[in-house]
Amino acid sequence: MTEQAEPSGPQSPHPAELERARRLIREVPDYPSPGILFRDIAPLLADGQALRATVEALIAPFRGAFDVVAGLEARGFLLAGPAAYASGTGLMPIRKAGKLPRPAASARYALEYGTAEIEAHDDLPAGSRVLLIDDVLATGGTLIAARTLLAELGYVTAGTAILFEIDGLGGREAFGDPALHTVFHS
């Protein structure tokens, strides 16, 4: 495990900053398939103040409790990179099957609109504490698979932080972690 650097910058964003960031998330109906309401975080990512407030809100409950941040493909990467930087830790990508040159483990899961598989490398020491970060929690399949993947690799899930939780789809219940942290809810 690596030694965690001292955090820099603000550690708790002001509620008004977070509300402004939340308003930047756009809803796109029927994407990627009919009946799905996609949450487009691109406007939030393009706004420096909103991105900073969001990243600080994602990692605040877990500061000092993790060695590395794992970002789930693909939009989880966009949040995990800044989160790793802000916390002085490393970054672990969890990718879709076939995207890594030397996957060490994989896990299959169901989405609300299909199935997918994720993979990861085994570059960290056994017992490394990993903060999982993803953009949206819907049915929980991606997070369950990621947690399974981390355990298979010998890592400890130190926490799970989600940008946006879609209430009513059962993701929180399926994931089953009372410490699951979400910044925004639908």
From TrEMBL:
Domain Phosphoribosyltransferase: 62-164
Pfam families membership: Pribosyltran
GO CC annotations, alphabetized: cytoplasm
Pathway stated in the Swiss-Prot or TrEMBL entry: Purine metabolism; AMP biosynthesis via salvage pathway; AMP from adenine: step 1/1
Catalytic activity: AMP + diphosphate = 5-phospho-alpha-D-ribose 1-diphosphate + adenine
Assigned keywords, A-Z: Cytoplasm, Glycosyltransferase, Purine salvage, Transferase
Gene3D superfamilies per record: 3.40.50.2020
Any one GO molecular function term: adenine phosphoribosyltransferase activity
Segments forming a coiled coil: none
EC identifiers of the protein: 2.4.2.7
Localization per Swiss-Prot or TrEMBL: Cytoplasm
Gene Ontology biological process terms, A to Z: adenine salvage; AMP salvage; purine ribonucleoside salvage
Signal sequence segment: none
Spans through the membrane: none
InterPro entries in the record: Ade_phspho_trans (IPR005764), PRTase-like (IPR029057), PRTase_dom (IPR000836), UPRTase/APRTase (IPR050054)
Tagged with keyword Transferase: yes
NCBIfam families: PRK02304.1-3, PRK02304.1-5
Similarity section: Belongs to the purine/pyrimidine phosphoribosyltransferase family.
Subunit organization: Homodimer.
Job of this protein: Catalyzes a salvage reaction resulting in the formation of AMP, that is energically less costly than de novo synthesis.
Protein name: Adenine phosphoribosyltransferase
Gene: apt
